Amino acid sequence: MKKFNKVIGAVVAAAMVASAVAVPAAAEEGTFKIGGIGPVTGAAAAYGSAVMNGAQIAVDEINEAGGVNGAQLEFNPQDDEHDAEKSVNAYNTLKDWGMQMLLGSVTSAPCIAVEAEAVNDNMFLLTPSGTAVECISGDNAFRVCFSDPAQGTESAKFIGENGLATKVAVIYDSSDVYSSGIYDAFQTEAANQPFEIVASESFTADSKTDFSVQLQKAKDSGAELVYLPFYYNEAALVFQQAADMDFAPLWFGVDGMDGILSVEGFDTSLAEGVMLLTPFSASAEDEKTQSFVTKYQDLYGEVPNQFAADAYDGIYILKAALEQAGATTDMDASAICDALKAAMQEITYDGITGTQITWGADGEPIKAPIAVKIVNGAYEFM
């Protein structure tokens, strides 16, 4: 993980330097400028680093194949450290650079803040992984991933329809819009499913290191499965603390748990059997996935996660929409945004995170949810 962060850190640093100097003439004459915003340092770095890496692979592939409508792509990644104010600062830096469209932000709270700026500017925004409903509140914004309510609803359906448990406990972060949004939808759909929520325990950003109370209540309730709609760092602590108290239920998570296998110092055997909703598995055998995984491992020394895959598809989705719209590099950001709004509702995309994906005017992707299970330290489709 240290090597991984050093690589992406160097890439971002170089991009930041480049944004402060004159853009090469060739870029001015025929280049679509795509900004990227996400956490490449800090606690959520596994998400942002993966997004920037996955996006860059797609950009390089497209450029090598002749570009988009005869033009090249230029990708400028900016670090927001999973902080809303810093994300807006990064957005303004990219505007000064001449950004024509944005891939980002990566995490929900920063994305909500940036979307408020982008809708005012009529800047096209495609978030690979911002799951909160408000991330795409404007008609300028679309997403690659499922929304929080969709994740919560589909998780409850999967657990119920597959008979995974009759007694379910939930532990969630009540201070986080991502976690609480998923929980709310999960709780609503659970009423329609053949299982009972026997314990519902929350924590906050100020108390996310000790989960002993929540785990004990889940254990005492007789829960056969515990649903964890939050991020991988906290999940690693939950698994360790549950093992210390001999509590071994089934575990079911969401896309924010993707990254659990790369947590430094974490015993990955504790995640064996964990299930989660994610549209991507690096062990899938189709040609597109294996080509991407091989390139990613060669470049970054890591197995790509869902966030890398979402970003990789995100760049190709932008390509498809730009081509559908007949966009040219001399169009300003607002004109490109208007063109892409219509084009996104006309394209159908087949990628590594889903096939036959379409979008409506609300910016939400229409695609089938997929569940995976961690087996022998790798994701397997269920």
CATH superfamily of the largest domain: Response regulator
Mean pLDDT, rounded to whole units? 91
**Poorly predicted ranges:** 1-29
Proportion in β-strands: 15-25%
CATH C-level class of the largest domain? Alpha Beta
* CATH architectural name of the largest domain: 3-Layer(aba) Sandwich
Radius of gyration from CA coordinates: 20 Å
- Number of strand segments: 14
How many domains? The number is: 2
- Count every helix, treating DSSP H or I runs of 4 or more residues as helices: 12
Shape: globular
Q: Name the helicity range.
A: 40-55%
Model description:
The structure is a single chain. The protein is of the alpha/beta class and 382 residues long. The protein has two domains: 2-146 and 286-366, Rossmann fold, CATH 3.40.50; 149-278, Response regulator (Rossmann fold, 3-Layer(aba) Sandwich). The chain is built from twelve helices and 14 strands. The strands form three sheets. Strands 7-6-8-9-10-13-14 form a seven-stranded mixed sheet, with helices on both faces. α3 (45-64) packs across α11. The radius of gyration is 20 Å and the shape is globular.
